[in-house]
Structures are given as C-alpha cells and as structure tokens.
Amino acid sequence: MKSKGTFVTMSGAGNTFAVFQAVGHEGDLPAPESRRAFVAPLCRNLAVDGVLFIEAGRDQADYTWDFYNADGSSAEMCGNAARCAGLFCREVIRDPRPSYRFLTGAGPVTVEGLADGRWRVEMTEIKNPPAQKTLRLLDKDHQGFAVNTGVPHFVIPVENLGDLPASVCRALRQHPEWGPAGSNITLLQKESATRARAKTYERGVEDFTAACGTGAVAAALVLQNEHGRQGPVLIRMPGGDLEVDTASPAPRLTGPARITKEHPLTEETFQ
User: Fold this and answer.
1) Which residue from 132, 133, 158, 152 is spatially nearest to 212, judged by alpha carbons?
2) CA 84, 85, 88: angle at the middle one, nearest 5?
3) Which CATH number fits the domain that encloses residue 156?
4) Is 72 exposed, middle or buried (0-12, 13-18, 19+ CB in 10 A)?
5) What is the pLDDT of residues 5-37, one digit of tens each?
6) Which of 7, 27, 193, 266 is most buried, by CB atoms within 10 Å?
7) Which residues are catalytic?
8) DSSP sequence for 33-84
9) Domain that residue 7 falls in
10) Whether pTM exceeds 0.85
11) 268/250 Cα distance (integer angstroms)
C-alpha cells in the first residue's frame, strides 16, 4: 500500500469534510469526471458530510473547488466547507496570503483568516429576499420562506428545533415545489432579533447535519427580514455558533474551521 501523499479531514462547526489538494497532484487523484463514483463510499468510511477537491484557480480566482455531498451529488456552495478551504490553503498548501478567492459552483467567494483563529466567508450575492411559501404535505400546511444562499433553502420557523422530525424534513426536501433537485430544509427557532437557533436537513447528506453555513445565512436573512433590520446575527447550530452579517448584498459568514486528522493517500483511498 504505497502512499501517494496525504489528505485531511476537517470540521467547520461540526460539519465535516475530506479535503484533497488537486493543485499539482492531478495524477494522484481521480479525474474530475470520475470522482462522483468514489464520494459516497469515501464519506461512509470516513464518516464525513462531503468531499472537497482544491484545484488550480481560473477566472481571476486563486483556487477552484470541486465539492460533493455525501451521496455523490455536486453542491454549488457550502459555507462551512469554504472556511475549511481557507484553512486548508494556509496550512496544507502553505499559501500564506491573508485571504483566498475560490471559484465555486455558485460563483466566486472570498475567505479570510481572522486574528482570533476563525474564518470569514464573503458569500455570493443574494439575488432575491426570502419568499414566503406554504407547502402541503400529508394534509398539513408547512409555512416557511424560500431563499437561495448559494444553494436553495426552505426556512421553517418553529417553537422548538425538535418540532419537525427528519422524516418530515426529508419529505419537504423532496417536495414537488422544488423540482428534481429539491431543497435544503432549515428549522429556525427565534430567540431575539439578533439571535436564533437553527439546524438544517441537507440534501445530498439526507439528514440533519451539525452545522450548515448556507443554512445559517438563510436563517439570518429570514430573521432579519421579519424584524426589518440588517447587520450581525448569531446563529447557534448543534455543532457550534456561526455569525452572519447581512449588511451587504453578499452576506458574511464567520465561524471556526479545524483540521481533525491527516490521512495517507493510497490506491485504496478511492476504491
């Protein structure tokens, strides 16, 4: 079992990923067109929520990313993975610049390392404000707000995060309203105009995750839309706290990122 190098597993507020350096190591990794087939077994083996390949930059970006959910589907954007990508470039690729511009499926995002060790992501611009919708499911109406924060979310205000089980969120995630791709489902438990608890049932993972960056941004937008204000919001997710600043059309998401383990990259990694 000859090693071809290493890769790492990472955590962004409990949202976990396997991250690979494709820049300069293209021959050691599956070609982009064949990666999808390897993702689901790799995520099961490593118990992670997604897989990220950091590739050479293009279109004025420092790096390009190729991101997959745990089921092998592609994801245009992931706020927690973006923070992990910034830390990966600094600590693994050894690129010392203070911020990194990534080309994602949702467009360019900028990730900046902060003095306190956290990472801040300038997300893609929000094109449309949250739109109120009512979904009919099993003779019951579910009211919420649809908003795209790089990927689609349906944000449902609840009294308690345990009010809607995963089975209901799974059905809502696959509701015909969203078309074949479906939508993430984010539950929002409001605490004040600037503070809330939230958790997201993520498409592609097909379960609740410890944290969801795009879900935190969606929750913050719905919260602030209700109160008619913009600015910093604290979103408390099961895996940790995320700060969202909605003062500009491109929200800023701030939170932790860390490397959890270094793994040998071998021929068996993608089998």
Assistant:
1) 152
2) 85
3) 3.10.310.10
4) middle
5) 899 999 999 999 999 999 988 788 999 999 999
6) 7
7) 78, 212
8) GGTHHHHHHHHHHHT-SEEEEEEE--TT-SEEEEEEETTS-B-S--HHHHHH
9) 3-122+256-270
10) yes
11) 41
